[in-house]
Amino acid sequence: MMVRGREDAAVVLANRARELARPVAAPTPAVPMIEVLCFSLGAERFGLDTGFVREIARSAELTRVPGAPQVIAGLSAVRGDILAAVDLTALIPVPRPPGPFSWIIVCGTAQAEFGLLADTVENVATIPVSQLLEPPRPGGLAHSVARDGLVVLDAAALISDSRLFIDYRTP
Amino acid sequence: MTLRISIAQKLAAAFAWSLALLIAIGAVAYLKTDELLDTAAAVTRSYAIREAAATLLADVVNAETGERGYLLTGAGAYLEPYDFALAQIGKDFEKLSKLDVERDLRAAAALAPNGPAASTIEVLRKRVTTRLTQLAETIEARRLKGLDAAIDLILTNRGKEANDEIRVAVADIEQAETRLLQAREAAAHNAAQLTFGTILYGTLLSIVLSAVVGYRVTRSITHPLRAAVAALSSSAAEMLAGTSQQAAGAEEQAAAVAQTAAAVGEIVAAVQHAAERVKSVAEAANKAVVTGDAGRRAVTETIGVMGAVKEQSESIAHSILGLAEHAEAIGEIIAAVNDIAEQTNLLALNAAIEASRAGERGRGFSVVAAEIKLLADQSKRATAQVRQILGDIQKATNGAVVATERGTKSVEEAIRTANLAGTTISTLADTIADSADAAVLVTASAGQHAAGMSQIQQGIESISQAATQNLAATRGTERAAHALDELGVRLKSLLVGTA
Asked: Could you tell me if B363 lies within 8 Å of chain A, comparing CB atoms?
């Protein structure tokens, strides 16, 4: 929709306001759904439960940590917080040309735990649970697979994966 | 015999030699013949003397006879023989003395010096005179005294003694003459023998010597002569060959000179042609100069127009630059708007996440989030469209820039070409002016050339004449050489003899 001048803009905004002012309709009987944030790494598309996503930000330069496992690509600063940037391709083999990542997904529940590096961030999708399929290798980080090939990650497993944390206390 | 002696001298020598021999033989023959003639004359004289002596004796006898007849007859008629004889006796003595008997007697005495002394004519004369006297006495006696007196006289025998003496003298003379005759005959025989021998041997010798001398002289003459003739013949042949060559060469020369003269004539004609053409060239050059000026003016105009075009192009370029800057500014704004759209998208996502995290309470917010996403998408689409348009504008402006640049370049090139044309026309005009001047010079020098060429033509004509004359002279020499050759052949034939 092209912006064709002030009058048109005013018209559009007025329409939007009306839409917004409409009372919210009763929700339809709940079909079990999950809301996942769709992102991609290389050619693979992944989904992560939005409960575990705090925010999305553009990935700035990572500060590399010498001696760190490959999973931890470096350290990143998001809104003043220093987070570990996690490269999922070290855990899940994905065909991806080498290069920096564009996005960092800040994961965590109560607080920011780590940042997940991604190539693209698409949208927040709502998928009915009934449409999810079993992953090819159950028990890994993959929770399920959607019909369009989106791999829904097991967020809990991811959060609690010890590989993602550096314990600076242990000598 | 050296060749220093000339042929005339050699011939003279040979002939002199032959002549000498001939003269010698002739002299000998002449002398001997003279001798023989003398001898013959002497013999004749001897015979004449003998005859004269005999005649004398006969006359004495006739006188005596007459005397006897007169004595007998006493008739005067019978004295006729006596008178006659007297006269004759005188004549006989004249004859004898004329015949120079004395000489013969002396010669005979010389031949037989031991012989008896011969009687001389005088003795004979005396004795004859005595006898005549006796006869006269007798006759006188007869006449005067008569017969008896005469007979007495006769009987004295003085007549007989006188006759005997006379006979002796005459016999002496005859003997002498006979002796002389014999001697002369012998001498004549010897002389004749000598003459024969001389003539015979002399002739033989002279034949041989003449043959030898003649052969040698001939050889000494003919050998060098033959050699000279051969040399003459060969050199005549050489000369003939040389003159033939020379004649051929002279002919060639004459032909070449004629060709050259023709060529020079052509050159003269060509030079005249060239002079005319040069004049036309000068006229054409003048016209070309005028045209060149017009061309230069046209070029200047073109350059002016091109300059204006270039200015226009530059102003267009300026405008386009301004346009490009504006487009850049728009691009920056679009980038900013795009950033805003991105941020809005990010915001929408984050809002969606917050809404989702908020659960039930966040549902209203999720609408806001969705609207924000829509807005972001709209912005994105709008910016995409604007970017596309901007891209088109940029492409168009780029195209315009490129076209303008191309146009500017073309104009520059056109200006360059026009300048080049201008300089070329200037150079051409200068060259044409130069060539016009040169044409004038060429015309002048062509006139000089024509004069020079006519001189050359004259020179070549005179050369041609000389060549023709040379040819004629060479032909004459050739003929002379021919004649010389023939002369040599004739000489050779003379030497050798016609076969």
From this structure: yes
